[in-house]
Amino acid sequence: MARKRNTGLVAINLVLLCVLALVTIAPGASAQRDRVRGDYTMVSGRIQGSVESAIYIVDATNLELVAVRWDRSRRNLAPVGFRSLSTDFDRVGGQGR
Question: Domain range spanning residue 41?
Answer without folding.
Answer: 2-91
